[in-house]
Amino acid sequence: MGLSFHSNKESLYLQVYDHYKNLIMEHRLPAGSRMPSLRKCAAELKLSRTTIENAYLQLAADGYIIARAQSGYYVTDIAAQDPVSPVSRHSNLPPVKYDFASNGVDHESFRFDLWQRYLKSSLRQSERLLSYGEPQGEADLRQVLADYIRQRRNVNCSADDIVIGAGMQSLLNILCPLIRDKKTVSFPNASFVQGSTIFADYGFDVRYRNKDCDVIYVSPAHMTKWGEIMPVSRRMELVHHASENGSLIIEDDYENEFVYFQRPTPSLFNLAGGHGVVYIGSFSRLLLPSIRLSFMVLPPSLSRQYAAVAERYSQTASKVEQIALCQFIRDGHLTSQTKKLKKLYAQKLKELKNVVQNIFGENCTIQTGAAGTSLALTVPYTRTGLELKKEARMNGLSILILEESADTITLLLSCSSIATDEFEPACRLLKSNLI
Amino acid sequence: MGLSFHSNKESLYLQVYDHYKNLIMEHRLPAGSRMPSLRKCAAELKLSRTTIENAYLQLAADGYIIARAQSGYYVTDIAAQDPVSPVSRHSNLPPVKYDFASNGVDHESFRFDLWQRYLKSSLRQSERLLSYGEPQGEADLRQVLADYIRQRRNVNCSADDIVIGAGMQSLLNILCPLIRDKKTVSFPNASFVQGSTIFADYGFDVRYRNKDCDVIYVSPAHMTKWGEIMPVSRRMELVHHASENGSLIIEDDYENEFVYFQRPTPSLFNLAGGHGVVYIGSFSRLLLPSIRLSFMVLPPSLSRQYAAVAERYSQTASKVEQIALCQFIRDGHLTSQTKKLKKLYAQKLKELKNVVQNIFGENCTIQTGAAGTSLALTVPYTRTGLELKKEARMNGLSILILEESADTITLLLSCSSIATDEFEPACRLLKSNLI
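ok -> structure tokens follow
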């Protein structure tokens, strides 16, 4: 073959990938035809077998070719299909162009290369990966987390009081059976579906904003979806009231990292001196949402109760990811990533507010808080929210509806998944759907 | 520096790693001293920065050096500590030399390099990883799983009926609330702690071997820990009885891949025509135990109920690992890994039985089944099991006690984590502890 590949090593396999992808999409390698063997292809292109294999694996991952055991790779019928990405091939909807609804992580901010290196380093600890993980979570990660939250949130605890799990629900599935003597639980509002679902599953009576419940679930840096935070005075009040009533507080410290426009507020765990508060932290807004890793800090009495049953619950979080995260935090990357994201989101949110104000003008009301990555926008609208949502989606816009009345609608607009220079076209498109 | 590194590319960073590890352990780089910067070290050794960085990351992962933000890497006090591996540094016990208790995966059998390539390929799908996963599990993995279990276990279902989760307990945490009208659950015996814990947490009345319960949990290829399997006649009987009584069967198909000495038996799900049976599968015995990935197949009525609440439960399994596994199965590696392990374990178990027979002679009773990776060994012993366990552990032996009477003890010996040529020394060491 008369091909020349640039010797930029990083992307050599991608050049091979592109070469074959084009041949396939242009029907020059028709569906069903067999790909050259790795050896033959490597010899022809004068590249290493590994490079070819990486290219083939990527082609297979993206649906261009398929492996048949003991036979080789074959071209799929992808070229005959419609030209959307292979992942969304099953749906009839156009791809999402602007995603206002996502609370994912900013596309530019996550260093995949860095995280990949930590995962690779973790995979090298083969002995450790050949056994099941510790039920409570890997000991070294728990130690690192204890240090981290002591420094950043004044949460003083030992690694023994920390339980790791694959997301907040996994932790509540361990906590709820421990507190089965309690009957009622209060949530800030109905939007905390994930938490309230688990409590309801265990037979708790779920209420809203009721400080006399046996369990009080709060998210002090995320009181509303548009980033209102709980002032210190109310934090103190809550801690005292709960202590007098013997209620347990569950402090979900979600997005505490993104409190921009005032000084960071102390954690309830710290204000309560570590008693009567379960502290929950997670990394979905700091790393990848697709990494399922959360942790809870149990107060002394619950920690003792947990220790007695710990062996009965298997760990849910991936051990590879736990090991990688441990080293990632040790090396200071979580701290720098948090700093970077905080700065970025503060700027983006401010800019989004400006753009919305300019485009929607006097007819709109904007609510913002001191934290988070979203603002709430209320505009006149007379049709149903469902209609708006469908129509917007057909136009490539993903939106989240907070509230609707007969003549207005309130949307939650997140700045995290849209690039700053796309705020304007995205808002204009949104406006055209609202008419 | 007058060093020469072999140009075998794979291990270049490991050579750098070893070089520094030795300097540190020989106190030639004392605790607290700063490591040369990446740039400087790369220039001196005439190697790439990436190679040096990989070596440093590995040194840090193993506790030889530690990163300080914006400053560089520093040597830890590891050389002053006792010479056990950094991971087990906190414990006073000697390292485990022979692990009879583990149901991990055979050390030689898992291809880390291959799995690493799939994880890397998965990490390249950055757009996909920047959002939360589908609550039910990634659609393409569910499709691949549906195809896989149809081919291998005659379980006919659609991808819509499959729910993915981080381990069996995560799945039961979704299933139990769906079947809250049921009150009693039967398990084969008391060793199924992980399953029975979750049912008890939701208020179920847990019983053993009681076929008149509302829910019947069985593991047909793992009726006892030493691999007894449920014969087809009893499977048929169970399915009929459950159908007449309106009981729900939960079929945990654990280790069905390791049925050696007879033909593979049909799944209950298949025998029941897909009604009244929840099928649970997992990969901990086939891939890495540290990968938390299980799935359940819901029968039509439960699948509809689940669909109505699916959005309330967030996915627990890592998205990166889901994407990697999907492609790994598509490319036929799960099939070949299963085949390889089945052959290997059948040989190892047979050999372990021979060695045990030779060493323990007439004084012992050996129980084996038609499946699994373990045998049960009963020998005369008059002290307590706890004493034996402690003493064996001090001698570097990890064992699992199944039963004890006044003058005998029954141990479960797993062949999976010990190499075949170590069966003899391991059994001799065990015997010396039993005297």
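The first strand of chain B starts at residue 65 and ends at 68.
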